[in-house]
Records
---
Amino acid sequence: MTEQIKPDLNFINSVINAGGESLKKCYQCSTCTVVCNVTPDDKPFPRKEMVQAQWGMKDKLFGNPDIWLCHQCSDCTAYCPRGAKPGEVLGAIRKLSIEEFSVPGFLARMVNQPKFLLVLLAAPVLLYTLIIASQGFFTDGVPTENGKIVFGKFLFSLYYVDTVFTAAALFAVFSLYLGVTKYWRAMAAANGGVSSGDFGKALSDTFMDILGHNRFKKCEVTKDRATAHMLVFYSFIGLFITTILAFARVIPEYIHHLHLSEGIDVHMLDWLAYIYKPIGNVSAAALVLGIFLMMSNRFKNQGKAGLGSYYDWLFISLVAGVGISGLLAQFLRMANTVAAYPTYVAHLCLVFFLFAYAPFSKMAHMAYRTTALVYSRQTGRDTGN
Amino acid sequence: MEKKFGVYICKGCNIAETVDIEKLKKSASIAAKIPADSVREHQILCSPEGLELIKNDVSAGTNTLIIGACSPRVKFEEFDFPGAIVERVNLREFVSWTSDPMTEATQTLADDYMKMGIIKTQKGSLPEPNILPDLSNSILVIGGGITGLTAALEAANAGYQVTLVEKEAELGGWSAKLYKEAPRAYPYEKLDEPMIFDTIREVEAHSGIKVYKSTMVEKTDGQPGLFDVTLTGNGSTETIKIGAIVMAAGWTPYDATKLGHLGYGHPNVITNVQMEEMAKKGGIVRPSDGKPAMKVAFIQCAGSRDANHLPYCSSFCCATSLKQAKYVREKSADAIAMIFYKDIRTPGQSELFYKNMQNDPGVLLTKGDVTGIADAGNGNLFVEAENTLLGEKISVEADLVVLATGIVPATRAPQEYLDGLSEAGKKGDDAKKAYLEETAKPDYILNLGYRQGPEIPTLEGAYGFADSNFICFQYETRRTGIYSAGCVRQPMNMSEAAQDASGAALKAIQCVEHVAKGIAVHPRAWDVTYPDPMMIRCTSCKRCTEECPFGAIDEDEKGTPFYRINRCRRCGTCMGACPERIVAFKDFSVDIVGSMIKGVDINEDDFRIIVLACENDACPALDSAAIKRMKLNPAVRIIPVRCLGSTNLVWVTDAFSTGIDGMILLGCKYGENYQCHFVKGSELANYRFSKVKETLDKLQLESDRCQLMQVSISDYDKLPQMINDFVERVEEIGPNPFKEF
């Protein structure tokens, strides 16, 4: 069947501007597909993605699971004889595809551009400034528990932490859901309908892949990345568990506070702290270690793999910032220093940034890549081998 | 000249370790008829002391020197003794490096080589150059494009009078019709303004160049140094004297009307030449309605690298389309240029221009075979292609399609016409008459007054380009003193054409200088000998006039052949062709080689094989094999010949009738990828060789005893094995029965 090609010059320019400035250098020798360890053998990437991007074939690229099967090992970039950096170009295309599918799209465009960084950051900062002002802390000082700093006394978590973050997280989840379903439909449209493959098996296989970081381990040039990513990945899981348990611990207190049950023992679940505090601390340490490894890997490999774009570094900085500010806030609190308060607020702002903008930042990769992997498994495009 | 012989034997480079020098001296003295103690030896003959030995003898009157040492291909400056006959016997490469040391067979081999060398000098005589009177050293350049203009300037700046002939009213050729040129200098980013107009001004202002515009060559008579060229144009005719000619007649674009399958005929499908005209007028538009073209498709190899059209690559079209893509992009930042190619070929530094253009976001490239062009209904077109990088079968809309058509050399039409004429002539006078009436005669370029025809002859595989044996000798044609340059020689871009022009100008200068000294022009550029036939015995059979690869032999009114000696390359093809065996050079003749063959020591127990080896490829290959110390069967006696084309079949009879057991004719590859230094020599030898069976049958000998082999210089590693295998086959056949007589 003859395929009608409609070149889109704007799209070509946007790939170039999104970090794919080497795109046009590709002369289609296909060295990249040969050295790639994660591509399927049939219609392998990234050669075809390079020429599709060169010809501005936007729909073809956005409806393609392959752009996410790529884990940006950068083996292709290291071996490219022309310096076309396919790894970086595919990274740019992924960024544009998030921009294309995420809802609302304007937020993605803001996240992608350094000039909007302060605006985006202003949202949580303003929110917490207002909260702190409304509590009168600026004028009256912060209440303590027998002179000890307790963050719960400072910002009552039910209203000022859990509510805010639950709202942010729900927004993020909902937005990601919309984005991912749009992506799924685009893939189905580009590949001639929905697959009849076993979705459940595809999903479970994909999760096993992710938990084992099987694809990362196939990378050669940047093989150290698997360790770094695994540390960050599992620390996120650890921190998620920490958050859930910490929330569970204060449920009796909330019940008491909201007068739902007068006689409840507010300390009945305090024992949970013995579980989540070690998990939290270990996870935080792992997060900081992992993200620093990631940074050092990027510097170490920049000659072969490139340093990455603003988009990459925004996400890395954010994760590093969340980890460091979290640990620091805890240490300063234990040291009973006043500096603990601004550090805690900074931590909250960064976490807010990370969560609320997750559907638009590189954080969204976890949803889109998982979707693409499941889709590829279900259609048989990818068997994980 | 009364010959006084001097025989010298070098003992260096293993010779003394392989051969008994005393015995060799003795046998050589007998052959040379000189006292045994007068044969001189030296530890290192090429050393100053060794050379002094020879020089002293020359001063004392020795004038015929037989030097048994290394290959004549080396140390030729050391063993140069003007005024004396010098024969270099290749003891080192043909004996000591290729044979077992101190065996009887090796000793006989060395004896035979010395003897053959001595016979050669006994039969030969000292050559003197043949310098014709009233030679001209002025140079004619045909064609006023970038090649012709550059050649004219180069030759004139070197101090030679130049006449430049251009058939159009203005100089500049295609270069003057360009809107812009692809970048000429680093970083190969910006398009350059055409430079040709500066060159035209320089040529027109040059005191050493006379320019004729709107003029054609009506007649070219004579020979190098003595060409009479008749020019006609602007209502007048003039005959001028010319030493050498640079033919830079250029090219025409391939006829796009034959490209209907690529949409030519549709108003919005144009050629690269038309694109250039359009850009020069100022706009890149859809011709059908004058709207700016925003989606321009370039189809590369339109009618090129295509068996049904031009089978070759025209070499410049890729860079031209990239350049025209830049026209499109510079007109509008929103416009795109799509290039469909077979392979992007941007030779030399154009590669950098390609890389720069590829980096333009609006220049889209894909490999692919364009299968057709369909009307999109709105004046636009769908370009349909297969096997693309984008997919199996694709279609892209374009508002303008540019066909990158290739070049047809100006020599092709006359060649095709003349070949058609000679084909018709073979069918009889009526067919010839009909051909002349029905076929339009194209413009000739040279109008040569040569017996072999008015233009440079066609060569298979050259696709109408003026053949130039370019593997080794660029610019050479099969008409000595006429050098082809630029696109008439092979497809090339403008910077290559300008370089080509310099090369051809130098060749033209070399030609006039060589004929002034009476030495061969090419490739035997040292050779003062020339064919000197004994005309009294000529039967006017015309075999020489037909076979001479260079058309050096014309016929007078009575049909008797005569040499235009400055056209001659001294290959000896005429000598090989002549059934009367009347052609001879002072140091190379039917008699000399025949006597050398007969001089080989024959005995009933040993086999003897003669190898007639071409001096140009086979001999160097044998020397190379010797340097590698590869062994040759000691039955083999190698006799160098100027070209296998000089092989006269009587040598075969000579050899077998004296008891030689086998014979190899070792020449260059012929046919499409010929390597022959004289273009046709080995091919003619092969043709004659096909008759050798008759000769051997007459002698009641097995035809397997004689074989022609084609080798190139790079075959040196296989060559000894080929020869040794042949010797074994002859040994299986058995000894030559004539030995008994």
Note: Chain B has a mean pLDDT of 95.
---
Amino acid sequence: MGELVVDKHVKYILSVEKRKDSFESVVLEHLRMNGAYWGLTTLDLLGKLDALDSNEVIQWIMKCQHESGGFAGNIGHDPHLLYTLSAVQVLALFDKLNVLDADKVANYISGLQNEDGSFSGDEWGEVDSRFSYLAICCLSILHRLDKMNVEKAVNYIASCKNVDGGFGCTPGGESHAGQIFCCVGALAITGSLHHVDKDLLGWWLCERQVKSGGLNGRPEKLPDVCYSWWVLSSLIMIDRVHWINKDKLVKFILNCQDTENGGISDRPEDAVDVFHTYFGVAGLSLLEYPGLKAIDPAHALPVDVVNRIFFQK
Amino acid sequence: MREESMISKGNSLNLLDAFELILESDPLIDEVGFIHPSQFVTLNKEATSSLKHEDANFWSRDHKLAISTDVLLPLYKAAKDAFMHAISQYKRHGNLSDASGYASNLESEAMKHSKALLLLSCDFGTAWNFRKLIVSKKQKIMLFLDELLLSALVLSYSPKSEKAWCHRRWVIKMIAGKCSTLQDIAGKESELVEKIAERSKMNYRAWNHRCWLVSYMTTEQVLHELKKSRNWAGLHVADNSCFHYRTRLMLRIMEEHCHKLEDGTSDENNEIYQIWQEELDWNEALIKRYVGREALWLHRRFLSLSWIRHFTTTLGDTSNYRACKSSINGGIGIFMDNELHLANSCSTIPDNDFEDFQAQTMYSATYILWLTKQISDSQGIELPEKPNHGSLETMLNMACPERSFLWDILTRITGKCDEVLKENNC
């Protein structure tokens, strides 16, 4: 088994931004803000955040802010909670939350809460428990949780719980490891984990580990590196991570590296991308892989960044 | 250098014009795909009717459209630039009075480019949003229905597109109050999901959409869906989403049934009892026919747990608590005996080591342990007797010695039972 090829991953992440020559890379420009979060958080976990010019990034982020206070995925696009959290997270990485008008961002977010406590992703009204997480995590980082109705938000998330202990997009929706991370993360941040049946959910999550050691996101699916993050972080938050085989999972993630050109893919031998590179490295961080910064399972930011947000001042 | 880039920009615009012309000339295109130019030849041989359009970049016939992978990058760039330019113009001048026709011209330009763009980049949210803005301003049913066509077209090349599914829900919510054919729409949507799920296996977004539709269905529709999806599920036993859809339908039926019991408009369990019994029998038959399928065993967990909760705890009334309890225990006892029998019959590993049989043994053992744990955790339901630690241990040892969490759970269940027994003896 190889080791984590840190320098190659750093090189890969720095190169992703410069690639404008293929349809596949250009066609995702509408979610560049998420890409920035994945890439930069990975760099920070690897201890290499200083490899690029933070001013340039911050200027670009602020150009993506809409007059409503929300952030878009790129300049000139419409705002959405998906990109608003990423923007705030990246500013937190650089310790630059002070460039924000926090109340303005918080007003945008709390304005998207619905009567039943759920959140819409943007003004067009689609509801999803993921959006509840985005709102709660973002307001938490901004120290503005009091701007929303936490009790109603928590009750809505609890209403998305299924008989198998997992959570879906809306009440009655199928359990999915990504949704579970969002719901458990939101409940953890708001101190409401008593809504989770930890043994039942832990059981479902542990059954995501397949023979190769990798994790899938739903029954009968192939393993995928991104679930290393979603399943693991959930297991940590509900205190059941000792129930899976960590060594096998570390091996699975390391086997998904492109050891020549850097980057991590969904499964061994597939093409790498920045999304899976982040989830692979973040997963290894949760598994306490040597040389990586620790990551906070609920806020999805390095622990030192989270400590700076909550314990400084 | 500058001349070269101007030429290529000019070419891209021609490309976009050609693309948009095809879209305009055939508004009934219902399928689009990106293909390598070498495949154009094969397409021509297979096609039956006359060619609608063919050059080196596009191919269109029988309301199907193919785009050459060679032109995707310049075409996307041209469509995006044209759209972004058009909406910035629209935002600047769109509020002018319509008299000049200028505003409406800007609007139709932006709509045209947004369509081209979405056929190349399915999750370009700003383009979907712009369409929502225009359509909601006009409030014409026909325009809303056109949006359903466009998103279906996008789903034909990108069946997992989150934004395309979301656009459909937005349209349906918008017309929900105005359109008497809402039930028809729910029915047609459900068919669309099934068609897409056939081509795109285990598509979470598609099935999530179908689950969402359930709240718009009548009771008759829900029963019809339960009947209809059974066939599909039987042919796709590894697709957990379809079994979850059945869970959703069954819970809705159960919910309505409980309301009726509360209102006093019904006092019989027969119909719902029968639905559950049929599903349990059918699931058992599938488990035996398709060896080692996780989704089937997980569906059984749901069926059995809700059976125990609803059909063994509602026997008798609360005034007769003690009598009720004993009949519950008896009921659970018989039920669990049957389940143990099923699990045991699925736990024989033949001499060859086919993975499917090993999986079957593991799923049956974890199924029994899961059910035992749920019962022992539920308030008001007591295990008929202390689970046989020895036999569960043997089963787990045989089936999945590496799943350490199961041992943890097993120890806790038997520990809890010991405590209860001690209390009872005092």
Note: Chain A touches chain B through 42 residues (CB under 8 Å).
---
Amino acid sequence: MLGKRINHSLHQKQNIVVCFSGPTLEKVLKIISRYPEGKQKSAIIPVLHIAQEEFGGYLNVDTMDYVAGLLGIEPIEVYEVATFYSQYYLDPVGKYVIETCRTGPCAICGGEAIQSYLEKKLGIKTGESTPDGLFTLKTVECLGACGYAPVMQINTEFYEFLTPQKIDKIINTLTKKSEEEKAENSKWTEKFF
Amino acid sequence: MLKVTIDNQTIEVEEGTTILQAARLIGGAIVPPAMCYYSKLKDSGGKCRTCLVKVAQGSSRDPRPMPKLVASCRTPVMDGMVVQNITSPEVIETRKAIVEFLLINHPLDCPVCDQAGECDLQNLSYQNGNEETRFEEAKRTFDVIDIGDNVQLHMNRCILCYRCVYTANQLTDKRVHGILYRGDVSEISTYIQTDISNDFSGNIIDVCPVGALTDKTFRFKNRVWFLKPMNASRSCTKCSGKVTAWMRGNEIYRVTGRKDQYGEVEEFICNECRFEKKAVSDWTIESPRNIKRASVISQNHYTRLKNPSVILPLEEKMGKSPYGETKSINDKQS
Amino acid sequence: MDRKILLENIDIPGIQSFETFRSCGGYLAVEKALKTMAPDEITEEVKKSGLKGRGGAGFPAGMKWSFIDKKVDKPRYLICNADESEPGTFKDRYLMEKIPHLLIEGMICACYALGANTGYIYVRGEYKYIIGILNKAVREAYEAGFLGENILGTKFKLDIVVHSGAGAYICGEETALIESLEGKRGNPRIKPPFPALVGLYGSPTVVNNVETLANIGYIVNNGGEKYTQIGLGRSTGTKLISACGNINKPGVYEIELGVSVRDFIYSDQYCGGIKNNKELKAVIAGGSSVPILPKDLILKTASGEDRLMTYESLSDGGFVSGTMLGSGGFIVYDEDACIVRNTWNLTRFYHHESCGQCSPCREGTGWMENVLHRLENGEGRSKDIDLLVSIAAKIEGKTICPLGDASAWPVASAIRHFRHEFEFHVQHPEIVKNVNHGSLAKYVG
């Protein structure tokens, strides 16, 4: 944060084939069709949410180029958007991205202690992932759940009134659940219908 | 026609004219500086906030003053509007503040910057800046990225005016660079390794108000004030072929568009003219460019001053030269 | 003073569903509007109601609607701003989660009034589950014939699209929201032109907050006149207040405007007093960007009157001794709160959320964060305090959008009212280095 060197190195295209599955593509096209003719670019945020979820939890160049193709826009227009919004990850992340709210109201209700506890529990620092690729620990600014502080989100699912005991429970459940597929009904594709 | 008064000078302008355009029609010291606005680029302006002015009277129909300072480059004139620019201490104070903001993370590496001598930020700081800085932290720096053989990108110097993005959007078919990330870590980038190169991509150098985008074929070759800007032309299939050739002796060091008194190119030129035609034989050299007396580029190029003992730099900066008409060496030669 | 408009039926089981909502009188406003009222009549009623925008700026909603350009031959749009991101504010989430049809009912009436055939709900991306709830509600409304072609047999046609953000506070600013909805970076537009003339896709557009729109059903049903009888003076109606911080009962409360601040903090009906029997130290009354007020000034105005939860009473005294109702994000700090640390925290938020488009905000927010960071960590010098005041003043009012002001006000007000704490940080670096958030009260008089 202080005296900062900004390291936004250029990304590489890996030339991997990226393509939504049939049913997902159908949903994506339906979402795109909700916007007026010629304004398909409007669908970029919802489509990127789905793409991130479908293609490894982050947005690589190939994924973004694919989305650009779907929307009929230049790839740079997708890069501009993807780098602007904080919910998009540009580098690989763990299966579960844990983001603790660190803004004012959560901070005065113990949010900072929760973050320290998570670091200790997972044995990693904020910004890092566990070696097994299961968890990535991040912080986030206000989640709009200040009355339920402290709060964190894990892949955009909220966890509220956090205590160390609660965290233990959540992490244990997720560690077990990691073998299974994520519950179908928490997916972005479902939320838009 | 709408009547507008700027710093006590009144002019009639057409509907849709902005305060800044009206000020340029009046001319002189009352013209607000512009770091991001570029009249030839649609949607430009409003971002740098250096052109903020005070609207003391909104219009004759609604004479209330506007509650905040407004960006003169994007605020249309209303009939009966009264504007204060250099007559408002608040505006002057604000401009100082903006310069301070623009400079806190600027590397101030003018001694090694090719833009030095023709840099809008340098001029702006000279006119409106403080002598000392209150910023003690380490400055923000970006990793260097390569955007091709023609243009050098120095992100550390960028003030995020967006002009180069509008240029790419409005002049070329396919834009490959843009503003990425957000806040004070946003940057001009291509995101992936790629060259910014198409027939008109070199114009991003001319529109850049600072040294963030410079000509690689001219890099470290010379200081601009050692060069003589000459009007030159050739017949070109892609552009008008009307350029400024920057010469020293009989050599062309650099080719740029022809810039007017506000630093804007008269016509955008193609990359072939800019980067590939560096031989004198490529061009018809026409006449010397008119350079502002205050500019360092005019140094050593002009003679026959009528009254060299009078030094009135302030008045000169206000646009009124005490020396009378100036003539260039080259005039005499031609 | 506890009449309710929005949360009246919130405890009825199943109120989330169309059927229950309808059986409790839901969508009657749509019937009344479409069958018995002309569009401009609705706008008139909303004007009459005095309903102020509930997103934070408090601009009269009816007035905003009347600015819309109905002469140009372009589609018109209504956008519901559900990008709730102001720290301390979580009322819209509550409303959308518990009673989503109230919003949709209000939107239909509003769209009819504006002549809009498409409405968008822009929900912040973190509220993923709310997006699911809203889409379900929208689907139910389509199935019941309240959305789609020929609504209730009239010629009126309306589509509502639920759109998602992706993590950017700035998209709560209406023109940034429009840019974002167009699929671009959330850079606020330079105004004029205002969205009422040139908005989404270049068309006339109205952007209203969730809570504002949720009030429309009541106004249509009961008339604007009736609405003005609720509340106090020019602060008509009710307001959702999301209370958080060091209080016993954080949560969302619908208050009739005019409740006293003291009652709101201490009565069991609302916040239930300060947690752990501590003392109240300060309150940010309307979302993190409004000025923070110390205990004595939040409970009573400078002239000694009881401070009330109304737009006018909270702003009594201007920024010298007052604040704003803002978005209704009510953050309460107890005696242990460290104002310097809190100010640094909020400034870091604004720094993180600045879009970076205009220079004062892009450069100034980070600079303020740096200075506050060193003060909080015992590395500050006394001139830093005045430096902060100066930077804040140079951002305020100079930026494209209100984020600049929002970043400057917390800093300016914290120093205005708690200068002694900043000075303490300068004078006792060894203490502030070692003692973390809170418990500084022991040292600061």
Note: Chain B is about 20% helix and 20% strand.
